[in-house]
Amino acid sequence: MYALLKPILFSLDPEEAHYFAMNSWQNLNRFAWQRKVMKGIFGTPEFDQPVDVAGVRFPNRLGLAAGFDKDAR
């Protein structure tokens, strides 16, 4: 899927790519059936398990870079 989206995202201004990605994710999670489909695609049990990194325990493997939650969205 990324291979299909990469040319589109890289052709956009970084701000536009950010808003496109955030709005797309928000729309994909709007309804329960869509969340179920997304969980089926991306929600594998290995990512739902806690992980220890440098002595800090995180509830799952998902990490976000600083500034990802631009505009507090």
Commentary on this structure:
With 73 residues, the chain is mainly α. Helix content is 49%, strand content 8%. The chain contains three helices and two strands. Strands 1-2 form a two-stranded antiparallel sheet. Strand 1 and strand 2 (56-58) form a beta hairpin. The protein is globular.
Could you give a quick summary of the protein structure above?
The protein has helices at 2-11, 14-28, 32-42; strands at residues 51-53, 56-58. With 73 residues, the chain is mainly alpha-helical. The model has no long low-confidence stretch (mean pLDDT 79).
Describe the SSE topology.
Elements: H1 2-11, H2 14-28, H3 32-42, E1 51-53, E2 56-58
Antiparallel strand pairs: 1-2
Task: Give keywords.
two-stranded antiparallel ribbon, 2 strands, 73 residues
Count of alpha/pi helices = 3
Note the run of SSEs as H and E: HHHEE
Q: How large is the share of residues in beta strands?
A: 5-15%
The helical percent reads 40-55%
Low-confidence stretches: none
Rg computed from alpha carbons, rounded to a whole number of angstroms: 15 Å
Alpha-carbon distance between the two ends: 24 Å
Q: Mean pLDDT, as a whole number?
A: 79
Number of strands: 2
Tell me about the largest β-sheet. Answer: 2 strands, antiparallel
Given helix and strand content, the structural type is mainly alpha
Shape descriptor reads globular
How is the largest sheet built, in terms of strand order? 1-2
